[in-house]
Give the backbone structure.
Amino acid sequence: MPKNYFKSYPNEKGFYESYGGAFIPPVLEKEMEKITEAYFSISKSHNFISELRSIRKHYQGRPTPVYFCNRLSNKYGGRIYLKREDLNHTGAHKLNHCMGEALLAKHLGKKKLIAETGAGQHGVALATAAAYFGLECEIHMGEVDMAKEHPNVVRMEILGAKVIPVSEGLKTLKEAVDSAFNAYLEDPVSSLYCIGSVVGPHPFPMMVRDFQRVVGIEAKEQFFEMTGELPDKVVACVGGGSNAMGIFSAFLEDDECEIYGVEPSGRSLDPGEHAATMTLGKPGVIHGFKCYLLQDENGDPAPVYSVASGLDYPGVGPEHSMLKDLKKVQYDTINDKEAIDAFYELSRLEGIIPALESAHAVAYAIKLAQQNPQKSIFVNLSGRGDKDIDYVVDTYGLPE
């Protein structure tokens, strides 16, 4: 990897090698240029950094702790550690970039924040940020996800956000992005589209990654303080890939650390039954950027599915796409059953109920622990499972 990795990627046009860019309507080009210019000028200023650090410490509750899973490790082998992003305010890593994006919107004089959400964690985080800064907030969410993640819908509404149901297509995350982006096109001057992951046209993948880097910076220092060494393996779930880029960013230059991104293989690897973009996708364009993409016979984004609403996206972050090609990160899959089993294992062995998204990473860590009993495995536990408990118990029941 280049010594100045974060200065090298993305390049000036927003590309990570051949991925990324900004494939957008001409009407948006000037607005994107303004956002890019503002990001580099405002977000690097002392006042912005000072305010964001204060928010993270006094409002979000950062740094989040690192925890050693004693009973889980004893059962499966290895040494499994968790970066507890589930303890970040609102219950997931999403607030890390939402507070940054909302603070940028405030400095830009924007009045309204617009976003999509799948599992609802990004929507809750952005509604929280909007309430904090006194901004309007509009969240677009597929009707299927609204039913699965009802507690988060209520949380968004309590926080003052307007939740827009999306009834097109599969009524999940991809359609929610379409709807939110169209709403932003109607008024790009007074609103800011706060995308929920390291996806979308430049500069969003870079902005979200940079705001999420706090996870990796903390995690690396905390792990070394606890153990006196770096982890052997670093694991995170990947949908769009924001929590993964957050923790991966700290270890990309450390060759002794093996890095794993975990995607959902859902019910099977048959078309429409999974969201294993890195495993079965090929380069394509979606939502204004180029990445690995699950495509149908016409080259359009293919239908996708996952038990975890935050992972059922046919694309993936452009930086992840590059890291796959460079073989710096290994991308693998976990299916629904393995994720549900891990959901209950972590709950009953450690007293920590993970989000279904994060349960994919936990399931993969269990596999690695069984195969590598002497190794340390560091999981980014990206969110807590309060939002999932009704759906999981109603659908799968309690284990015996």
In short: The CA atoms of residues 127 and 160 lie 7 Å apart. The first strand starts at residue 15 and ends at 16. The chain has a mean pLDDT of 96. The chain has 16 helices and 14 strands.
